[in-house]
Amino acid sequence: MTKRALVTGVTGQDGAYLAKLLLDKGYMVYGLHARRATDTLWRLRYLDILDRVHLLEGDLTDLASTIRSMVKSEADEVYNLGAQSFVATSWMQPILTGYVTGLGAVNMLEAIRLTNPKARFYQASTSEMFGKIQEPMQSESTPFYPRSPYGVAKLYAHWMTVNYRESFGMHASSGILFNHESPLRGIEFVTRKVTDAVARIKLGKQKELRLGNIDAKRDWGYAGDYVKAMWLMLQQNAPDDFVVATGRTTTVRDMCRIAFERVGLNYEQHVVIDEKFFRPAEVEVLLGNPAKAKEKLGWEATTKLETLRHMMVDAELERGRREG
Ligand code: NAP
Ligand code: F7E
Asked: How far is the CA of 52 from the centre of ligand 2 (A)?
């Protein structure tokens, strides 16, 4: 029988890659699609899957939408990727972030509980929940200490996922994913902001790149690898929580250097530090321990940061040349 999946946030970076993965596995894929005045379907077009994903209009903050999406999709597996996901914005819109990123997950859990409690649920949790890190390498047992309204909202959604699992016996799993990037990353996130600038500088369209705290360190992986871990979690007999990471951490500065070097440029001649991009409270360093995911899911990150940076710079150069 054809398996059916519902993906919230299907128009986002991970939603697009996950939808592609599921389609390739023969799933019928439904996507919750929040109406916007501008075009948000470009990633589904980029992966050439727009006509194969069944888009269901709805918003995570609207319980009727989540119930209707469950009824219409008759999903066996639900991946909750929808969120206000930009950390910096979460200080400007903390309440909206709470509604979408926190309560939105509960709307989805309630919709499942009311319509088909046997459906399996994946919650997109995040390394931002570790925030001010309590251990040098963060695993499933590391205490949380979120540092932004986004991290706090995600922590609420995470514990609600655990709670619905323990209270109602739901197959609800939480993937604590560290930063993962790709050519489909939103332009406001630092890896894509850098590769966009590298291409524009190389093509003579821009001179400088303004950044905030380039001493921050992140454990960066490739989104195409990470969506496989999401799927694997829902194929397990028992629900559980997993850290998904590479186990290597790098400064924003070095990540930048690698990208500029790809086109023969020196980042030091182009990067300007701008206070505007500093955050009210910073997550200084993140480094994940993916041992449990390797042992139980057989999952491992396979794309090195250098390969990822080159992939993103090359895609950006091609975009830049196409746009003229
Ligand atoms: P993304 O590109 O920002 O995508 C977010 C998605 O959520 C978009 O499709 C967006 O739709 C949708 N959305 C926003 N508000 C919504 C609402 N009110 N109702 C329904 N949908 C709404 O994020 P991503 O990088 O793919 O990440 C996917 C998920 O994983 C997110 O929950 C994120 O917080 C989490 N996460 C990401 C990372 C990472 O490094 N990428 C790491 C850990 C966890 P529009 O396009 O219409 O705005
Ligand atoms: O920042 C520093 C910034 O915005 C990374 C989201 O997917 O991953 C992402 O959150 C670091 C931070 O990602 C600029 O201060 C310096 O230390 O790319 P980012 P993030 O905040 O780590 C987690 C796991 C998620 O769950 C989130 O949804 O880079 N940084 N200068 C800058 N960051 C940005 N955006 N822009 C700068 O100019």
From this structure: 32
